[in-house]
């Protein structure tokens, strides 16, 4: 008798707990849904290949062993325009230490991108994501967004919005190979 | 004659048949003899035959209009409400052949008549389908939902008869007050029909310009004398009545005016009826319900809900969700019409639980059935006219 | 636990109203009732039996139908409140501040309060979801609590019931039978009426449609599955809801659908033509104005080869060509792409003529592709136009520098150098719509705007919903259950011979008494059973008497 009673107690406790946990988890998930990321720090950076202004192909995985400073931008985007000269200066410092910059433009015309690169005298490779497929793969929003990819090909940090030159230097230091 | 005008005439024939049939059903329950006696049966038989003739005319209206339009005639408020009225009659005929009670017809037909009369107050043009409605789910979803609602409406009719019979209307009580309130609401609907008809016979039209809630300039045409003016209105038709009050941009003063006129007509109509009969309407109708068997009405009420609930679920929720997934990319979007279908469904679910598990039979059950019908009518009318949403096509 | 021992010797769990064996009423209340309360066969709800620990108390709370109905009503009222004003979803504002401002601006103080109380996102609120969750718990607990005892008591019901049970049934008869072999005749008739008949010395139990009693539990299972499906949608990966804007001629990666690309060939907007529409629709078009008949995007769906990486778009494989229309989404690989929105006539190409300002003489024309402008446009005859700058959405100058506020060619502007045989050094001009600036002094030549080519933009929604089949299954099971419980009914007729040679007849159904009465009438006639009475229906007895008098 006492045994069935105990069994019943256990079953009821189990059912109620499972239901309560499921409901709380659902509500929590619904509340935080917007903040949910497809890609997070520590994930492997999805590989891609894009063509730069000189017609050269850049494949992310070719840079394994180097740190990659992956910047998504557009010519109309003011903060992008502000941080790019700073990026260029830091590029000069770090490019021999194994840190590469890849600036991914979002589906603009070659003309606009070339004009922009000329105007600011940018030396790092600029690639254009014509079909927005890399942007989709990285789930980019807003511009600029910068991903720091370490020499192992893992995402070290995701930076949304504008960076100061100090930030940029610090970030590049972070993904510099030993 | 075009198919469209044939269709319109058929609807009129149906309307007249329902009126006549009501009289015969009235004859069947009047007199001192019980409902089941031979002479009463004869009246009842004629009543149901006339009803069926009307229903066939009504179906013919539906089919000819379908052929003329090329799509099921359920795509605007007039068409949907008319179809709903037709299905109420259909559901009544079905229930009549199970239970053979003329009392039910005496109350179900007038309600169908009011519904169809109400429907004809809206624009009766045949609309071409907008892209969102171009789907066979329009036919499937709307017809099933309307059928479910019509069957559920029969439960309210049975409930109403039960209440008329069992509530003591000579005494002042909550019950007799609310029963009379239900009667008053029915008269208000007639008030709407009366006011709309009056002004449309007069061919009343008054144009105004106004500023809407988004600060844009708009124009609006009233078909009733404007009691309320739109935000910052300016009259464009000379010689029409000046609105008595201006409304803030949030309020649609035209609709408010229509409602006010309906209320005025309704109240005057109700006052006149009370003046002539010198007692509550419920008290006048009570003798007509006296012949009905309470147990049978209770059972019909419950039976109608148990037949109608699955049909309603299928049409108004499941088919609705399938279509919404196909047309709007999501099966559920908390659109007001969707929400009110859910509310209706939840209400009848509560009704069934209260009845089955808590033993709410008889009067309680009858009240619930009447409230359920009010919710259905609210979803049909108020949600379309007052609460704007994806469903307000009319 | 105190079991109740019935007079027949059967042990019933605490809370039982009618003995599970013989049907005698066990509680004082049940004994006082004229008619037995047949809900759940008078068996004890399991929860009533144990009520000691806090878990039992919570369990009992959710097991109660009263609580269940209360939750339903609360959801109902809350849902209704949510329809008073449009929900956030339908409000044309995106940021919190805009939304707050919108409610206050459009709906005044009431709107402000509505927003502040969180009613503008009522269906997404934690408390509304909690209510739905509680309804789910109630469904599970209450069903478990009732189904098991009901199942047991129907499974082991006895053929002979005690007289006190019989006489408390709504349809009951006790009296002499005039005929012979009453039970055998009854059995034959009942079998003809498709009852299952059980006999046991001097007693008979006929039953049909027992499975309808499981209807409520089946439909509850359906609802639980449905709610489970809804719950899964909150988990990542079960559900994709994205939008994309695609212009005619563009090829774009489909958001959240890795490896898939969509090319827009054409956007089509059609309206009903008043001239061509037959007379049927004439009035409606007259009254309403233009009525759209079709929104359509003709697309080509591509998939990248297995080995290709994002960004590699040279070797896309065509999957299919399709026209996406409202109500006809493009479907592939669990995804569906819907026609949801459109923008007409976005600028695509601008046509200019290079002309002499004084003479008006034209040196040739050029077309600038706003999506992919070229650097130099050679007009032949020694004239050319060189593009120095392109500002697709020109928004003014900043430090003398032209600015663009977006990459979309809403207001294109160009900085150009025009070279002609007459002006071999070139003249610089800034050309925008309805505006020309000559920053380096008066020019002899100008770019004269001719016309534009436009293209349309389609707004598409991309969905993937892995829970759909679960929801569909839940819906299907619900419908089966609700039909099973509504369109069938469980009827039982008990007949037995009493000790003094009389016959007792009782009948019960969970609904549709009208039908069981008809059947009982037939059995009564065939086996000459005593006439039964409907003990709940006092009116028809009186009427019958009246009828007898009058006829």
Automatic annotation (TrEMBL), chain A:
Keyword Transmembrane helix applies: yes
Example GO biological process: cytochrome complex assembly
Parts forming coiled coils: none
Principal location: other
TM ranges: 9-28
Keyword Membrane part of the UniProt annotation: yes
Identification of the protein by name: Thiol-disulfide oxidoreductase ResA
Annotated compartments: Cell envelope
Domain Thioredoxin: 39-177
Stored SUPFAM superfamilies: Thioredoxin-like
GO cellular component, one term: cell envelope
Alphabetically ordered keywords of this record: Cytochrome c-type biogenesis, Disulfide bond, Membrane, Redox-active center, Signal-anchor, Transmembrane, Transmembrane helix
Automatic annotation (TrEMBL), chain B:
Annotated TM spans: 6-25, 46-68, 80-99, 104-122, 142-164, 176-194, 259-277, 300-324, 339-356, 368-390
Lipid bilayer topology: Multi-pass membrane protein
Membrane recorded as keyword: yes
Domain Cytochrome c assembly protein: 262-391
Pfam families cross-referenced by the UniProt entry: Cytochrom_C_asm
Subcellular location: Membrane
Keywords: Cytochrome c-type biogenesis, Membrane, Transmembrane, Transmembrane helix
InterPro entries per the UniProt record, alphabetical: Cyt_c_assembly, Cyt_c_biogenesis_CcsA, Cyt_c_biogenesis_CcsA/CcmC
GO annotations of cellular component type: plasma membrane
Keyword Hydrolase attached: no
Any one Gene Ontology molecular-function term assigned to this protein's record: heme binding
GO biological process: cytochrome complex assembly
Name the UniProt record assigns to this protein: C-type cytochrome biogenesis protein CcsB
Organism annotation: Paenisporosarcina quisquiliarum
Taxonomic path: Bacteria, Bacillati, Bacillota, Bacilli, Bacillales
Gene it is expressed from: ccsB
From TrEMBL, chain C:
Any one GO BP annotation for this protein: cytochrome complex assembly
Membrane topology category: Multi-pass membrane protein
TM helices/strands, residue ranges: 67-85, 126-148, 217-239, 468-488
Any one Gene Ontology cellular component term annotated for this protein: membrane
InterPro entries assigned: Cyt_c_bgen_Ccs1/CcsB/ResB, ResB-like_domain
Subcellular location: Membrane
Keywords (A to Z) from UniProt: Cytochrome c-type biogenesis, Membrane, Transmembrane, Transmembrane helix
Plastid as UniProt keyword: no
Domain ResB-like: 65-521
Biased composition (Basic and acidic residues): 541-551
Keyword Isomerase: no
Region (Disordered) location: 531-551
The name this protein goes by in its record: Cytochrome c biogenesis protein ResB
Organismal lineage: Bacteria, Bacillati, Bacillota, Bacilli, Bacillales
